[in-house]
Amino acid sequence: MTARHHHYLSQCYLKGFTDKGNKKSKLTVIDVSELKYFKTTPRNVGGIRDFNKVEFDGIEVDALEKDLANFEGQAATAIKRLRESQAFEGETRDTILNLIALLSVRSPQMREHFGNYQKQILEQMLDLSLATEERWESQMDQMRKDGHKLSDDITYEDIKEFHGKKQYQINIRREFHIAMELKMIKNIVPVLGSRDWALFRVNAESGPFICNDNPVHLAWIDPESVPPFFRQSPGFGLGGTRVYFPISKELALVGEFDGKEGTFDASRDLVTVLNSGLLTRTYKQIYAPSLNFEMFWKDGSRLTGAEFLKALRA
Question: How confident is the model at residue 57 (pLDDT cuts 50, 70, 90)?
């Protein structure tokens, strides 16, 4: 039987933020869009129907889902090794950097954002093509020379009116999104590898780290030094940026160019700062072992998860 429910956030990753650390234990989920929280297992979040489905002749529709399942098994092993050794190196490092790249570009929200951008480009191309009748007819002649069969019953005026009234819908194929995501992952991994990575671990007083549905936090280290036009557009290859990625409720990675490498104890303030930064990039849901985590509110006050939810409802 072909699986139809596909996870863009793997269960093997999310289980690290549950109360007991396995797939069958519970996540505390804060839904910021509905201003509520509930408890559930990793299987019930971070997934939608047919997210990884591909429809090409000669390829199984779940081929990508199977490949990703294999990689997620490798990622689960790497995360387990890291939690045991607390040494971010070798094969463990390589696998987790691939996981970071994967999670940085693949989500329903990213696809929607990228799809809207592509639609705008196509609309602009249509505007240019229909700017004059001569340009339109020239393009039609070229298409006929290329072997495309076109109807002679539709005039330039018909097409221009149709376009002007927006009597159509542009749909971006899932396979196009998947191809672009795989290309971006291939480009992001080497850049992540060129960063210096610090592994932070919590203690009884400082933890826990939390996660969300957009767990790779790329940000400027000193945003005030960046021209306003560029502040919303940090890049993985740009200097002066930091990549933050929570591994589990106990461990998190911070990657910078010319940063410090090694394993360090995370203070309560650092955990709170990192949790707070991650929360600013949440699409819809936050994942934690309980509501007993900490973050900074916009006025600088320190809030628990329960207090944060109360503040959102106010």
Answer: confident
Which residues are CB-neighbours of 182 under 8 A, at least 6 positions away? Answer: none
Neighbours of 123 (CB within 10 A): 12
Tens digits of residue pLDDT in 252-271? 999 999 999 999 999 999 99
Q: What is the DSSP string of 152-188?
A: SSS-HHHHHHHHHTT-S-----HHHHHHHHHHHHHHH
pTM, two decimals, is: 0.90
Distances (CA, A) of 271 to 103, 137, 155, 199, 278: 21, 62, 64, 12, 11
The partner residues of 174 in beta bridges, in order of sequence, read none
User: How far apart, in whole angstroms, are the C-alpha atoms of residue 157 and residue 96?
Assistant: 55
Q: SS3 of 197, please?
A: strand
Cα gap 291→305, rounded to integer Å: 4
What are the residue boundaries of the structural domains of the chain, listed by start?
5-113+171-313
Cis amide prior to 190 (ω within 30 degrees): no
Q: Is pLDDT of 35 > 90?
A: yes
Residue 10 and residue 75: Cα distance in Å, rounded? 9
Contacts of 241 (CB under 8 A, 6+ apart): 218, 219, 220, 221, 234, 235, 256, 257
The 10s digit of each residue's pLDDT in 169-220 is: 889 999 999 999 999 999 999 999 999 999 999 998 898 999 999 999 999 9
Cα–chain center distance at 275: 17
